[in-house]
Each structure stands twice: as C-alpha cells, then as structure tokens.
Amino acid sequence: MAGAGGGGCPAGGNDFQWCFSQVKGAIDEDVAEADIISTVEFNYSGDLLATGDKGGRVVIFQREQENKSRPHSRGEYNVYSTFQSHEPEFDYLKSLEIEEKINKIRWLPQQNAAHFLLSTNDDLRINLWHLEITDRSFNIVDIKPANMEELTEVITAAEFHPHQCNVFVYSSSKGTIRLCDMRSSALCDRHSKFFEEPEDPSSRSFFSEIISSISDVKFSHSGRYMMTRDYLSVKVWDLNMESRPVETHQVHEYLRSKLCSLYENDCIFDKFECCWNGSDSAIMTGSYNNFFRMFDRDTRRDVTLEASRESSKPRASLKPRKVCTGGKRRKDEISVDSLDFNKKILHTAWHPVDNVIAVAATNNLYIFQDKIN
Length: 373
Known about the structure:
Layout: E1 18-24, E2 37-42, E3 48-53, E4 57-63, E5 77-84, E6 89-91, E7 96-98, E8 104-107, E9 117-120, E10 125-130, E11 133-142, E12 155-160, E13 167-172, E14 177-181, E15 193-195, H1 208-212, E16 216-219, E17 225-229, E18 233-238, E19 247-250, H2 259-264, E20 274-276, E21 282-286, E22 291-296, E23 302-306, E24 322-324, E25 333-335, E26 347-350, E27 356-361, E28 364-370
Parallel strand pairs: 24-25
Antiparallel strand pairs: 1-28, 2-3, 3-4, 4-5, 6-7, 8-9, 10-11, 12-13, 13-14, 14-15, 16-17, 17-18, 18-19, 20-21, 21-22, 22-23, 26-27, 27-28
C-alpha cells in the first residue's frame, strides 16, 4: 500500500495491504461501560475468536467455512457462544471490591474435540491452575507486601514460553521483565533473568516512571524473542540479552509533548496490548483516534491504519493515516491536536496462520484481512 508510512511485508509479501472484512457491535454513541471490550484472543487454529468485556462477559466467534463459489472470499466470524465468566465480588476480609472486568483470555492447546479457555481478573499474584484440580490454585509469584502502604509496583502481564512449559515471564509497572524457571523452586520469588533498559538521565521527567510501565508482554512464536509494550513504544528483546532490547518501535512519539494533558485526563494510564503475526515478521499494537500501528521487522517499515465505520464498506481498502505534528498540514494528514483520545485501540489479535486481524474499538470488534487482487 503506497502512502506515508506504508510498506512492509508482514506475511506472504502483502505490503501491508489490508481491507475491511466485518464489524461486530452496535452503533451507539452512548456506550455502556460494561460493553467495552477488554481483551481479544484467537485460538490456536484461528477458527475461534474470543472477546471479553468490562461486564465480565465472554463472546466466542466461530469462523464460517469459505464459500467455494467465491474462491477469493474468506469465512466470516459469527457468534458461536456467549456466557458470563465473572461477577462482581467483595472480599469482606480485606474490604476490597473485585470488579468483573475480563483482563485476559487464553485458549488452551486442543487435545480433543472440546475447546477450553482461561479468563482472569488479578494483579499482585500469579497463580498456576491444574485443570483437574478446580478447588485451589498454586501460587508461583507473590509481590503483595505485608503492608499495602509499602506497595511500589504491580504485575502488569504474564506469559508462558511457547515451547518450554517451565519458563514464564512477567512484567511490572516499573518497566522491568522477569523470566522465571519453575524447576528452580515452587515459589518463583527469584528470577532467572532480569530485563530492563537503562534510562537516559537527561530525558528523565515527572512522567518517566508512568510511561515506562509495561502494559503487555508476548513471546514470539519461535520462543527466541519477547515483545513488550510501554506507553510510547514497542520493544523486542532477545532472551539471550537482558541489558537492552534489540528493536524499539515508536508507536506515537508525537504524544511526548502532550504528556501533561494526557496525565490530567488519565489517558497516560491506558494499557495497550501488542501481538505478533504468525511468522514473527511483523507486530501490531494500538493507539488513539482508533488508529493501530503495524511494524515490519525485516524492512523496518511501518504503517498507521484506522478502524472506523466510515471505512467499513465490504472489501474497502484501508488507507494509511499520518499525524501532523506541526507546520503546514497536508490534505490526507490529521493534526495531533485533533486526535480523539476517547477513541482508542487497546486490544488487538493476529490470526496464527492467515493475515486476518481483530481490532477492538470500544464496544466494536473490527476484523480485517489482507487485500486480494
């Protein structure tokens, strides 16, 4: 796709050419808080797509069979099942409300015809569950201090290694990532590896710690790398090098000058997720104004695309968007001062095999596919 910031070949040499496939959700300006999508996840085959929302509901979409009379068509995703996963609770011993929002969904590897998934809403502990022991879990990480006033960081994300079942990583609000090996001890209070990028003292500001907080961590499918997302960037780490990332991709660096206003409206605390494509050659993450970003790791090209109903005509091509930070604005550019911070892409997912992506925008789920000539 030609244009500002366009290019790259994420999988199969498609040069970031994407078109609209379908959108799920109501057209409603007054969106209920409970209907806002809070996580998106494809299963291992990509035939099922699950979403969770702030109301504790899980919706599963199933991909229909392709229409043989239209060889270039792709199967659409339609609702397969809907259920209430979590209810609001109150811990009377700790006088603590536990909200029903679904923070994460993870599909389990399929062993037979049945499909299983896990959904969660925790942030100070990591618990390991045995699927045949349903009345208790095994605590493997606990950073909760005896006195909550001494709390200095929280766990922001956790992920198991795709090939080594004893290895997992978890990230923190301090911008660090710890890799743990469950073979060393039952409680992984000591990490095997510690990943942190040294901060440049000259660039330190009041917002430094906030914007360095890691909101997501994902292993590559190969297991060689992991990707982390902080407020302004996506970083790719080689598991064999703890001192610094091997790649840093700026998502919306133009917002650095807006951090004060983003702090005042609480947007600076937004938690953006990130994902790999099936071959680990491209990565995707979200931004504001319903923009989402794609980065090609081989060509170092990137593109900004938009999820909107205005461009949701069947097979309509997505046009690259560009943000103007100053000076004369071109016709196809949008000023940084015109960005809508209430429209944000926090959750994205990439099909494990095909070039099909799912993008959650408030209460709408957009599905795009690579453009076929």
